Amino acid sequence: MLDSSQLAAFAAVVREGSFEKAAATLHVTRSAVSQRVKLLEERLGQVLVQRSSPCQATAAGQALLRHARQVALSEADTLRTLGAAPEAGGAHGAHLAVGVNADSLVTWFIAALAAAQQALPGTTFDVLVEDQDHSSDLLREGRVIGTVTAEPRAVQGCEVHALGTMRYRAVASPGFMAQHFPGGAVDAAHLARAPMLVFNRKDGLQHVFLRRITRRALQPPVHWLPSPEGFVRAAQAGMGWGMVPDGLLHGGPAAHGLAELRPGAPVDVPLFWQCWRLHAPTLQGLTEAIRQAAAQALQAA
C-alpha cells in the first residue's frame, strides 16, 4: 500500500510546480513535503519528480500521478456519499484538473464548469489550456482527468464523448479587405502577402483554410496573438485576418465590424470530451455538465 500523505505531497508538487507552493496548499512545511516525496521515491525505487523550475513529473511520476488523482477523486466521492460536508478543494471536495482549448474556454466551457460545481458542491478546478489538436497529450501525461480535444481515438484507459462541432470563419476588417483583397480577390497571390493572425505555434486553423482555398502551402506574414478576445480586436483593428469561432461572433461577423474572406466557407472542428474510464460520480457529473453545455453551444456533430 502507498502512503496517502506521500501521494498527496507528490501530486501537489507536480500540480503547483514547486515544493514551497505544495507545502502552502497542504498547510505543512516545505521539509515535510520534501521528506514525503523522498520516502515515496525510495519506496518505489524511482525518481518521480524533476527538481526543475517548475517541478515536473518524470515518466514514472506521470504514471503515478494518474493513480494519485484517482485516489483523491475516489476519496472525495466516498466522503460525499457518506454525507460529509464538502470543503472547496479540501478533504471533502474534489480538485479536478481538466484540459480545454482556449476558444472553448472563452465561449462555452465556463458554463459547464459552473453547472458541475453547482451539482457537486466543494469541487474546485485546475484548468489547463492547450490546443485541441494536442490536448490529448495532457491525458497521456496524467496531468488531467479529462480534456476537450479534436482527437476522436481514445487515449489508453479513457472514454470518448462526441460534443459537436466548433465552427470557425476567416474574418478581417472591411478596411483590411479593401487593402489586401481589392475587388474581393481572395486568391493565392493576395493571401500569400496578407498578414495573418495565429494564436500560437500549435494553431494550424489558418493554414487549413489556406490549403482549402488555394490548394497550396502558403507562408504569409504572421502576427502571433495568444488571446481569443485579442484575436477579434486585432482583426477589428485591421492588423490581419484570422479564424474566429462563431461563439465569439454573435449576430455574425458584420455585427462586430468584420467581414468574411470567403462567405460560406467555414472550417468546422469536431470536438470530443476524453476522460478516464472511471465510474466515479464526480467525474460522471462533470462529464454530463460538459455534454449539456456543448449541446447548447456547438453545431451538431
From TrEMBL:
It comes from the Bacteria. The keyword Transmembrane helix does not apply. Residues 2-58 form the HTH lysR-type domain. InterPro entries: ArgP, LTTR, LysR_HTH_N, LysR_subst-bd, WH-like_DNA-bd_sf, WH_DNA-bd_sf. Keywords: DNA-binding, Transcription, Transcription regulation. PROSITE patterns: HTH_LYSR (PS50931). The keyword DNA-binding applies. Belongs to the LysR transcriptional regulatory family. NCBIfam families: argP (TIGR03298), PRK03635.1 (NF002964), PRK13348.1 (NF009888). This is LysR family transcriptional regulator ArgP. It comes from Acidovorax lacteus.
